[in-house]
Design goal:
heterodimer; A: about 280 residues; alpha/beta; two-stranded antiparallel sheet; about 35% helix; elongated; B: alpha/beta; nine-stranded mixed beta sheet; 11 helices; about 25% strand
Chain lengths: ~280, ~290
């Protein structure tokens, strides 16, 4: 099994485009697409999967049994997230602050706390042609995305090439998505913003001990500093994709380029071969 | 003082480039906040001169004293974040800082230690004060860091008698986005005429409505697909949302960024004209 993450630091550099086309170019192999950008999942707009099952994902939050609670306040004292407040004859649970660690229920001296699932989003699984597909959809107004990302990643299939479409940024949601992957492809653009965020993303994967390489998208819109950076760091540039009105237009309509232009299928196969070779080396 | 947050749902639609131009257009009557704390870019076009630097500490990490630890395994059983290795080493990335292990360790070998998870700054720029931050790599609590700098920005805007607090928001709809929207007077959603742009616009708009915030919409690179632009236009009409303007695709936006300048300072072309009118529309809508 290969777990391949596509990440970027900066948003809108083309993660989903690359991940979708890579998956389609590998359709004849066993490939699974895991869209872990649960805040804004978009891959389904391009792959148009048939969703075969759907279930709610939640995190455990405390439920107080008032027949047993004596308002001692221990639960509020141990909660690191201020998700519980205890008054003389009342306990308030702020479910949206709860991380589901389980301290309060375990440590309640009266055993007055049980746990119930609070839904945070939906996990949907299906197929898109020959590709197994799964994504998460975080509920509107919900702050806590990592548990849903973990749930999407658990769907990965042994023996398959699992392509993980990560969210932008470098904080907890991205870490959840990239953790445990064999390789991370960093998609960037050759602009000052792209470079700044590539540096952050590269530091992140390095800190996590995950080998990585770079794809430079819209490679002719900007300057040379991203390439210089990659040279300095010994970071392999696996592919460069120039800006192209036809590509932009296909993307705008939700049409993956490998379905329309055969030479792109070849290019994405080459990209995968380079990643496989880098994996063997690592 | 009015607070405005610029968001997008989808990343890379042009939020920061737009906020940089708004900064130049706000005639020093605003304080700026870069709330995209894990990929902060606004400073690259605003040339900040650092005035204040603060450490951001909002959480703790468990630390196991291996000379006391009896390797009983209780902490590893109880930790729901799989943060403790077989060698009883805490993985700082996985540790949520809940303290469960520390409360339950039978030999009290686990201490919770404060964790510096980022830095935040107050800077002076040619356009006014900028409050910005840098979340440590792979750190948590970006929402709390956003709240910290947003509140500091609001204080500075009040104290300086400024008319606006302008917040450059992060992508997505999760924790830092919610923190950047909390208590603001208006949101500007920057979208693009693509299936992803529209899908994400709808989701982030739902978040604004969930928190009772009025949103305007701006379509960036609108001429890359006129049909999708038309679809966004109709959507805004149907939902009774102010369409603050449409900005064409132009390589000059990237040129300005490479020069480290807001596009309205770099060029007087069609993009700059449209950006001015978006800013005008946003201010009209607020007042």
């Amino acid at each position: 099994m290969i777990k391949l993450a596509i990440a970027s630091g900066k948003g809108g550099t083309g993660k989903t485009t690359v991940a979708v086309n890579l998956a389609l170019a590998l359709e004849d192999k066993n490939v699974q697409y895991l869209d872990c950008d649960v805040e804004e999942p978009n891959a389904h707009l391009f792959l148009k999967p048939v969703i075969e099952n759907s279930r709610e994902v939640g995190i455990p939050v405390p439920k107080i049994n008032f027949d047993h609670c004596n308002f001692c306040g221990r639960c509020a004292e141990v909660c690191a997230f201020n998700a519980l407040a205890v008054f003389q004859d009342k306990v308030m649970v702020f479910e949206e602050l709860c991380h589901g660690c389980g301290s309060c229920s375990y440590l309640c001296p009266e055993k007055a706390i049980t746990e119930a699932e609070r839904p945070i989003g939906l996990l949907e699984e299906g197929t898109a042609g020959g590709i197994k597909f799964a994504h998460g959809r975080l509920n509107t107004g919900e702050a806590m995305s990592p548990p849903l990302i973990e749930a999407v990643k658990k769907v990965s299939t042994p023996g398959y090439i699992n392509i993980i479409d990560a969210p932008p940024g470098t904080s907890c949601p991205v870490v959840s998505a990239v953790e445990g992957c064999d390789y991370c492809l960093l998609v960037t653009e050759p602009t000052p913003f792209g470079l700044n965020d590539l540096d952050l993303a590269y530091q992140m994967v390095t800190k996590m001990g995950i080998p990585s390489g770079v794809l430079i998208n819209r490679s002719d819109l900007g300057d040379d500093r991203v390439e210089e950076y990659c040279r300095d760091k010994g970071l392999a540039i696996l592919q460069k994709v120039p800006w192209d009105r036809e590509l932009a237009s296909l993307y705008a309509r939700g049409e993956p380029v490998v379905k329309h232009l055969d030479h792109w299928r070849v290019r994405f196969r080459e990209l995968f071969d380079k990643i496989s070779a880098a994996l063997k080396e690592a | 003082m009015k607070k405005i947050t610029v968001i997008s749902g989808k990343g890379g639609t042009g939020k920061t480039s737009l906020v940089g131009s708004f900064a130049a257009l706000a005639s020093r009557n605003a304080v700026f906040v870069d709330a995209d704390v894990d990929a902060a870019n606004l400073s690259l076009i605003m040339h900040p001169r650092l005035l204040e630097e603060h450490e951001f500490t909002a959480s703790q990490t468990a630390s196991i004293d291996l000379s006391e630890c009896t390797q009983c395994g209780l902490c590893r059983d109880l930790c729901r974040f799989e943060a403790i290795s077989e060698e009883y080493i805490v993985d700082p990335v996985a540790c949520e800082g809940c303290g469960f292990c520390s409360y339950t360790c039978p030999v009290e070998a686990i201490k919770m230690e404060d964790r510096v998870s980022g830095k935040w700054f107050v800077s002076e720029t040619p356009f006014g004060t900028l409050v910005h931050a840098r979340l440590g790599i792979a750190e948590e609590n970006s929402g709390k860091l956003v709240t910290t700098i947003r509140n500091r920005g609001a204080e500075l805007a009040e104290a300086g008698g400024k008319g606006y607090l302008l917040i450059d928001g992060p992508p997505g709809i999760g924790c830092p986005v919610i923190a950047s929207l909390s208590g603001v007077d208006a949101a500007l959603i920057v979208t693009e005429p693509t299936v992803s742009g529209i899908h994400d616009l709808e989701r982030v708009l739902a978040v604004c409505r969930h928190f009772g915030i009025t949103a305007s919409v701006c379509i960036n690179r609108y001429d890359l697909d006129e049909d999708q632009t038309q679809a966004i236009d109709s959507f805004c009409r149907k939902e009774k949302i102010n369409l603050a303007g449409k900005i064409p695709f132009d390589r000059i936006v990237v040129e300005a960024m490479v020069k480290g300048m807001p596009v309205v300072e770099y060029s007087d072309g069609p993009v700059s004209k449209r950006v001015r009118s978006v800013w005008g529309s946003l201010i009209d809508e607020l007042n």
